[in-house]
UniProtKB/TrEMBL annotation:
<dbReference type="InterPro" id="IPR008335">
    <property type="entry name" value="Mopterin_OxRdtase_euk"/>
</dbReference>
<dbReference type="Pfam" id="PF00174">
    <property type="entry name" value="Oxidored_molyb"/>
</dbReference>
<dbReference type="InterPro" id="IPR006311">
    <property type="entry name" value="TAT_signal"/>
</dbReference>
<dbReference type="InterPro" id="IPR005066">
    <property type="entry name" value="MoCF_OxRdtse_dimer"/>
</dbReference>
<dbReference type="GO" id="GO:0043546">
    <property type="term" value="F:molybdopterin cofactor binding"/>
</dbReference>
<keyword id="KW-0500">Molybdenum</keyword>
<feature type="domain" description="Oxidoreductase molybdopterin-binding">
    <location>
        <begin position="118"/>
        <end position="279"/>
    </location>
</feature>
<dbReference type="InterPro" id="IPR030835">
    <property type="entry name" value="Sulfite_DH_SoxC"/>
</dbReference>
<protein>
    <submittedName>
        <fullName>Sulfite oxidase SoxC, putative</fullName>
    </submittedName>
</protein>
<dbReference type="GO" id="GO:0030151">
    <property type="term" value="F:molybdenum ion binding"/>
</dbReference>
<dbReference type="GO" id="GO:0020037">
    <property type="term" value="F:heme binding"/>
</dbReference>
<dbReference type="GO" id="GO:0008482">
    <property type="term" value="F:sulfite oxidase activity"/>
</dbReference>
<dbReference type="InterPro" id="IPR000572">
    <property type="entry name" value="OxRdtase_Mopterin-bd_dom"/>
</dbReference>
<dbReference type="Pfam" id="PF03404">
    <property type="entry name" value="Mo-co_dimer"/>
</dbReference>
<dbReference type="GO" id="GO:0006790">
    <property type="term" value="P:sulfur compound metabolic process"/>
</dbReference>
<feature type="domain" description="Moybdenum cofactor oxidoreductase dimerisation">
    <location>
        <begin position="302"/>
        <end position="411"/>
    </location>
</feature>
<dbReference type="InterPro" id="IPR036374">
    <property type="entry name" value="OxRdtase_Mopterin-bd_sf"/>
</dbReference>
Length: 431
């Protein structure tokens, strides 16, 4: 039965331990939820209330700035930036992370979408760039960018996550950083391009061809192996991101997009697809993106991003200014399909309640979830747990470590726990 608005008193009755409220609290008129703020930000005096007789603000008494050819964020939001972590020994090798705790909704602004580069961002002239499809095909084909712009295109909102996202979770001690600074190798965009199946059909795949090696045009010559079945199912050769042509750091002029599969497989600056009977067994599918399990076997070709969620507010580095009814907000996603359910706990996992999933809830896309929480000022631990439409449930960290061991570096999707102390400070814990 759907929740309906009711009296605030009813809405403030906990439905789970720790003061977690039901979804009805989010629908109650007149109930204003508090939000966690930055622990580093100084307390600021509230702006005085205004009345109809007050003078209008100064910016209403002079013309504004002229038009610009490309919009930029307000100067008052300049602190919302990606955080860069580079390899000091290999310039051009590193990552920049999306500040998840600073964003709302599900779409990541293109300028804040995470990056992973192995040897810098190439400066590609689109007039000289070509996509070659060859190997086990009836006709090797070469496409220029203008060729591809004339094909029918498809758009899809998709989450993209690096296989190394959240890898600090494998550390023996919980890392203390803002949520975007160690979970921020995940972003969500609308990608538009040519269905790869159209191009492969045109080339004509030979029998017993099961793999394709995709290669990028960067100075690392990034390459990976992918099953042809997936490429024929839903992969696209993207030319646009969030409505505009790809930016250089995201693969301009062409990028392979493989819905629901980990970031390294979405090869940027795509220049070549070689069809074959077997995988290449390249560096990024043997030495990297592979885990040594406790039984000595190696876990390889783990393409799909598994069910995952995290609370972005309150989260590490934020502060609660005393007992109140707080808004809990976070993100969930799965490479297997739609998010079916997100549960939230405010008592360290002893009890759980369903969060509200904000529309739209799309397959292989980020989903925003929200919950209301009446904090009484006592220390506690917040958690979220995602379940996708295939029944895949996000595991506790102890269960993930028991299954995979700690020899790996990739594919961490355990439940994230935030401890709130009696002063309202929030920190990362294993609980």
């Amino acid at each position: 039965m759907a929740d309906t608005p009711g009296p605030p008193g009813d809405a403030l009755q906990p439905v789970a331990g720790g003061g977690l409220l039901g979804r009805r609290a989010l629908l109650t008129r007149g109930l204003v939820l508090a939000t966690a703020g930055s622990a580093a930000a100084p307390l600021q005096a509230a702006a005085p209330a205004v009345s109809a007789g007050d003078p209008s603000p100064p910016w209403m008494h002079a013309p504004g700035r002229p038009f610009t050819v490309y919009g930029q964020p307000s100067k008052h939001e300049q602190q919302v930036i990606r955080r860069i972590s580079g390899n000091r020994l290999l310039p051009g090798n590193g990552v920049s992370l999306t500040p998840l705790e600073e964003l709302e909704g599900i779409i990541t602004p293109t300028g804040l979408h995470f990056e992973r580069h192995h040897n810098g961002v190439p400066d590609i002239d689109p007039a000289q760039h070509r996509l070659l499809i060859h190997g086990r095909v009836k006709r090797a084909l070469s496409f220029c960018v203008d060729d591809l712009l004339r094909y029918p295109m498809r758009s899809q909102l998709l989450v993209l996550e690096c296989g190394g996202n959240s890898n600090a979770g494998w550390h023996p001690e919980p890392i203390q950083r803002p949520v975007g600074s160690f979970h921020g190798l995940v972003s969500c965009s609308e990608w538009t391009g040519v269905p790869l199946s159209v191009l492969l059909d045109e080339a004509g795949i030979e029998p017993r061809t099961t793999w394709a090696v995709a290669e990028g045009a960067d100075a690392f010559a990034m390459n990976v192996s992918l099953p042809v079945a997936k490429l024929m199912d839903d992969a696209i050769v993207a030319l646009y991101q969030n409505g505009e042509r790809l930016r250089p750091e995201h693969g301009y002029p062409l990028r392979l997009i493989v819905p629901g599969w980990e970031g390294v497989l979405n090869v940027k600056w795509l220049r070549r697809l070689q069809l074959s009977e077997q995988p290449l067994m390249a560096r990024n599918e043997t030495a990297k993106y592979t885990e040594l399990l406790p039984d000595g076997k190696a876990r390889m070709f783990t393409f799909v991003m598994e069910a995952k969620s995290l609370i972005t507010s309150p989260s590490h580095g934020q502060h609660l200014r005393g007992p109140d009814v707080y808004a809990i907000s976070g993100l969930a996603w799965s490479g297997r399909g739609r998010i079916r359910r997100v549960e939230v706990s405010a008592d360290g996992g002893r009890s759980w309640a369903d969060a509200t999933l904000q529309d739209p809830v799309l397959p292989r896309c980020m989903t925003r979830f929200r919950a209301a929480w009446k904090w009484d000022g006592r220390p506690t631990v917040l958690k979220s747990r995602a379940t996708d439409e295939t029944g895949d449930v996000q595991p506790e960290r102890s269960a993930l470590v028991a299954q995979r061991g700690t020899n790996g570096y990739f594919h961490y999707n355990a439940i994230v726990s935030w401890a709130v102390d009696e002063e309202g400070n929030v920190r990362h814990v294993y609980a």
